[in-house]
Specification:
Blueprint: E1 51-57, E2 60-69, E3 78-82, H1 93-101, E4 105-109, H2 127-140, E5 146-152, H3 153-164, E6 169-177, H4 183-186, H5 192-201, H6 205-215, H7 226-237, H8 241-257, E7 271-276, H9 299-309, E8 313-318, H10 325-328, H11 330-342
Parallel strand pairs: 3-4, 3-5, 5-6, 6-7, 7-8
Antiparallel strand pairs: 1-2, 2-4
Helix pairs in contact: 2-3, 5-8
Length: 344
Amino acid sequence: MPARKRFAAPLSSLLLTSALCSLPGAVLAAGPAEPAYGPELEGFDYPYPVQQYRFTSQGVPLHMAYMDVKPATPNGRTVVLLHGKNFCAATWQSSIEALSKAGYRVVAPDQIGFCKSSKPEHYQYSFQQLAANTHALLESIGVKNATVMGHSTGGMLAVRYGLLYPDQTEQLVLANPIGLEDWKALGVPSLGVDRWFERELGTTADKIRSYEKSTYYVNQWKPEYEPWVQMLAGMYRGPGQRIVAWNSALLYDMIYTQPVVYEFPLLKMPVLLLIGTRDNTAIGKDAAPAELRPKLGNYAELGKRAAKAIPHATLVEFSEMGHAPQMQDPAAFHAALLKGLAGK
């Protein structure tokens, strides 16, 4: 298995910790504390070799970046990791390590519109389309059946994948998925693509960090989270800022307008729900009426509600974790994950 890559430049005071040296991320030009990356995350190193699946979709040639990590001692199963909206395949690093060590083949793609994959100028984003892209990628590398694990927005995509391809989905794992409620039906106003685009153009590392601290990590912060902040912010500092922001706006509109919560009862496969109960994520919450905001993103309740709606669900709760339990406490998260995979 290839060794993890290290930062290509000395770290400034922002990242002064030796622990960071084992995490991915190479600086392009703007200095080690404020890197600028290309529109397809050029200059940022992933922990394993990146391959490209090339295909045509909606009349446009596209490429989908992915890591395909094969274990030293295979157990015959494959896990497909679907990242969230503010994440990339690289942020699955610790999960890839834990799964690979346990014998699983791991495939971790960047979806179209994200990270190292294509960012088309015009694309009708839907969870159906992203699921079809992912299915085609898996077919191209000989994966016929898999456990599909999605985090955050990737959880919504995993549900859609399981609904479209039930016979090829052995199990779903949903780690703090969003979409456990329908925000528009609850009263969150529609922003529309143009307003999302304006908001995305204002993306900065400080805004990302502040949001992640309060939502992902229960108002706690560790130095090892910082490279993932810079990974995202670096694309907005680089020459592809507008195309990155535009695709992000299209994706936010997809998330808001395409709920999957109503279809939970249709899932046929075993579903493992891994929920940090202190999560409070809800798309567009800051634009919602003030009296509505406290009622949105209550994962302590939403996880239980999802477990009741899904026919073959197992719920595991992490009482002190937020939106990203796999990063906040990798040891506890992966112990629960491996136990849940073994007992499907």
